[in-house]
Amino acid sequence: MNFRVNPVFLNAISSILGVTRDFNGSGIIFGNGQRNIIKLFDLEGKTINIKSFKVPNLVNKVVYRFFRKSKAERSYEYATILLSKGIGTPEPIAFVENFNALGLKDSYYVSEHLVTELTYRELILIPDYPDGDTILRQFTRFSFDLHEKGIEFLDHSPGNTLIKKVADNKYEFFLVDLNRMDFHETMSFEQRMHNLRRLTPEKDMIAVMSNEYAKLYTNKSEAEIFEKMWSETCEFQEKFARKQRLKKKLKFWKK
Fold it and tell me: What share of the chain is helix, strand, coil (3-state, %, to 5)?
């Protein structure tokens, strides 16, 4: 076993290890659990969120044992970095890895559980979401802040930002699903726009985001920002659609 615990929770090490050992037999399932399973547990009166990562294939068992940090460890480390840079994310509590003779057997990322009103996805699914324009503009400022701090969140997609209302017309944003990130001294215009490509296929939302981003990023005009952001979005959507069509064909032949 390999694990690391946030110093704030050192007195709860035995409890944390206990709930990961009994992960399959206890806890409350949170979400759909298609790839990874997330469960909620009580830790000394505090609700915590434990993510059990999908058991890696044979090659990755070895890779995660000897050559690369596991998704659980990366999630913990990246959460710590984000908080140090003033970026919202649920407080990291621990990561736990279990090994066998072949390599990594299973791994868990433990964090606080945040109760929030929505994710970015609701802004897409509900066009007239209350205060939607304000939320979208504040989210764009949040994304700009990530870019200014050199944070390239590689899974910057609709379900991976939790949004919490903290006052009238004031929202806070929290990144989740953290195991894929790059950190830079600076981010180019191309990197910034590429990073926003997965968020929405809605052109009117891209227009709002471009307008708000242009208020902060003065190296390009609003028109240039919109053109690049929309181009990146269209390219991503086309690739995604091709991938989905290929999956359907493969599933047909499997049948």
Answer: 45, 25, 30
pLDDT in tens, 99-110: 998 899 999 999
Q: Which CATH number is correct for 118-243, 1.10.510, 1.10.3470, 1.20.120, 1.10.20?
A: 1.10.510
pLDDT at 193: 98
Nearest-angstrom CA–CA distance, 66 and 68: 6
Structure pTM?
Answer: 0.91
Question: Which residues, listed in sequence order, are joined to residue 152 by a DSSP beta bridge?
Answer: 182
Q: Pinpoint the alpha helices (H) of the chain.
A: 13-21, 58-62, 71-84, 120-125, 132-148, 189-195, 203-216, 222-254
- Res. 254 pLDDT band, cuts 50 70 90: low
